[in-house]
Design brief:
Elements: E1 2-7, E2 20-21, E3 26-27, E4 64-65, E5 68-69, E6 82-83, E7 108-112, E8 118-122, E9 131-134, E10 137-140, H1 142-151, E11 161-166, E12 172-183, E13 190-191, E14 197-203, E15 210-215, E16 226-227, H2 240-248
Length: about 280
């Protein structure tokens, strides 16, 4: 499984205003998806911590090692999906396969940046692979996400994130999360072309994933936290099709102020939610 993350370029223009704080995803106003619904069966492990090969939730392999995400092996063609033990499982709350669901465990701080509006930094050291925070908000259906995007003006900040998971059989699963009015601290993360975080869809109770951000490297106290809005880690090469869209949409794109050595000058751009219903991937 591979995934792609996309946000409209104005996502770095953070503003502090009336926000209903929610540490977890909630159902959007369209009501199409309920991220709190429990649909997965639980494991029957009667131990304090589940073991690989005996736990239903770990049938694809171990997810974590000492609270840190286990890196994908070089021999693995696709990134392994991450399934944590859930509310129906018989294992204890101390199970090592329960990490993202425990929520924020680190001391983070929202602060004002020089050029990027508000940002988020850590007040303590974070080890590589450690879960940092979730990007949580309203989980929307495609039509509602597109309606909200198209209703925005050039002065509006956009927080809607689109995550596309590419399955081995060619199917694509999409998740739309909007923390504009209801969300958590993840909404204050800025983009970087050389980020210190990366996003992984983690599933707990259902197929609706938690958009979990993990440390891509050791992070020192005081460092600003960031991730690549496009989903490419450390600016992996873009496809010819992506390059064509970027060249066509340069007039609409916003400048990037990440300051990295490999800065692409512009923030990532995804025009899919601006397409007409009959021209966008066959959706209706």
């Amino acid at each position: 499984m591979n995934w792609h993350v996309s946000q409209h370029p104005e996502a770095t223009r953070h503003k502090l205003f009336s926000l209903q704080y929610s540490p977890d995803n909630v159902a959007g106003t369209d009501g199409d998806i309920d991220p709190t619904e429990i649909t997965f069966p639980g494991c029957s492990c009667l131990t304090s911590s589940c073991m690989v090969h005996t736990c239903l939730c770990l049938r694809l392999g171990e997810n974590y090692n000492s609270l840190c995400l286990r890196p994908t092996g070089e021999e693995e063609e696709y990134t392994r999906p991450v399934f944590e033990c859930n509310a129906m499982c018989q294992c204890g709350e101390s199970c090592q396969n329960r990490v993202v669901q425990r929520g924020l465990q680190l001391r983070l701080e929202v602060f004002k940046t020089e050029k990027k509006g508000w940002g988020l930094r850590t007040l303590e050291f974070i080890a590589k692979g450690r879960f940092v925070c979730e990007y949580a908000g309203e989980v929307l259906g495609f039509n509602e996400a597109r309606r909200r995007i198209q209703a925005q003006t050039s002065k509006d900040s956009n927080y809607i994130i689109v995550v596309r998971e590419h399955l081995h059989n060619g199917q694509i699963m999409e998740t739309f999360v909007d923390p504009t009015c209801i969300g958590n601290i993840g909404r204050f993360l800025n983009h970087s072309c050389e980020p210190n975080l990366f996003m992984v869809p983690v599933r707990v109770d259902s197929m609706v994933p938690k958009l979990a951000l993990f440390a891509a490297t050791d992070i020192s106290a005081g460092e600003e936290l960031s991730y690549d809005y496009s989903g490419r880690f450390h600016n992996l090469p873009i496809t010819n099709r992506e390059q064509k869209y970027l060249e066509e949409d340069n007039r609409l794109r916003k400048p990037c102020y990440c300051g990295s050595r490999t800065c692409s000058s512009f923030l990532p751009w995804d025009s899919s939610l601006f397409s007409a219903p009959d021209t966008c991937s066959g959706r209706r």
